[in-house]
């Protein structure tokens, strides 16, 4: 059998009596930098996880709640913004503030919006049957939990906490809002008080039989809800003495119109 000739490689297949001719191997040179390289891992998922924890992300139900609330508000004011989502909602709120007239009229309009979100029979039955139980404790605890679950689309991250009542007892009927999105986006103390704080307190007291005190903090934008606690009269409520926020868009417009006027306290409270 004739040996198989290969072009410039082997003269024949090796046999037991023949020596193996090894081809020179090309060896990749090693880097002698003295530095060891650790494997690189993509950390995009870790970064995304941290971002998700630091910012509240609206879900499907949140969009539904926002749509219902905005529709009722548009019915009340008779105008809607072209902007979608939360930005459009805030434009409708600002429209209510600019055309609402007196503070009492703005508060009354906001209460009507809240009432329109519920069947009238549900509010009446709750006030009649649930609110009197255990001197209001059961009703206060219930609405605190419902508020914390269903209103994060409006206020941002919040949780139920324990509050102290004027008589010294403690109930788990508080809701603490870490940083109120409504206040942060509106940038206006007047909007907070006239379209949120006062009408919400009135709604729960008059239509559900539950006293409520809301304590917004205009320094860090947090807010404490105290279900089961009557609010102080306006002349004793510290929020009515708060100066106008520097970031308030309405205050900016007033400064432009009245350049010689020094704006301190919000004129809408």
Automatic annotation (TrEMBL):
One of its GO terms (molecular function) is iron ion binding. It comes from the Eukaryota. Residues 153-235 form the Beta-carotene isomerase D27-like C-terminal domain. It holds the Pfam family D27-like_C. Transmembrane segments: none annotated. InterPro entries: D27-like, D27-like_C. This is Beta-carotene isomerase D27-like C-terminal domain-containing protein. Coiled coil: none annotated. PANTHER family: BETA-CAROTENE ISOMERASE D27.
């Amino acid at each position: 059998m004739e040996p198989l000739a290969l072009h410039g490689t082997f003269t024949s297949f090796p046999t037991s009596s023949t020596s193996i001719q090894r081809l020179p191997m090309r060896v990749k040179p090693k880097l002698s930098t003295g530095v060891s390289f650790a494997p690189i891992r993509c950390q995009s998922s870790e970064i995304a996880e941290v971002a998700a924890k630091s910012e509240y992300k609206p879900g499907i139900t949140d969009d539904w709640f926002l749509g219902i609330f905005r529709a009722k508000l548009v019915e009340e004011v008779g105008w809607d913004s072209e902007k979608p989502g939360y930005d459009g909602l805030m434009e409708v709120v600002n429209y209510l503030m600019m055309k609402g007239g007196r503070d009492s009229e703005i508060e009354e309009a906001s209460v009507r919006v809240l009432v329109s979100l519920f069947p009238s029979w549900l509010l009446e039955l709750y006030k009649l049957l649930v609110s009197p139980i255990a001197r209001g404790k059961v009703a206060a605890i219930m609405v605190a939990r419902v508020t914390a679950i269903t209103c994060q689309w409006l206020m941002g991250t919040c949780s139920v906490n324990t509050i102290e009542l004027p008589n010294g007892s403690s109930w788990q009927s508080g809701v603490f809002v870490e940083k109120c999105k409504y206040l942060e986006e509106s940038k206006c103390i007047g909007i907070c008080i006239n379209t949120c704080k006062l009408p919400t307190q009135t709604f729960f007291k008059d239509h559900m039989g539950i006293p409520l005190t809301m304590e917004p903090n205009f320094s860090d934008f947090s807010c404490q809800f105290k279900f089961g606690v009557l609010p102080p009269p306006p002349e004793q409520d510290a929020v009515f003495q708060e100066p106008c926020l520097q970031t308030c868009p309405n205050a900016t417009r007033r400064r432009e119109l009245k350049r010689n006027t020094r704006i301190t306290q919000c004129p809408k409270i």
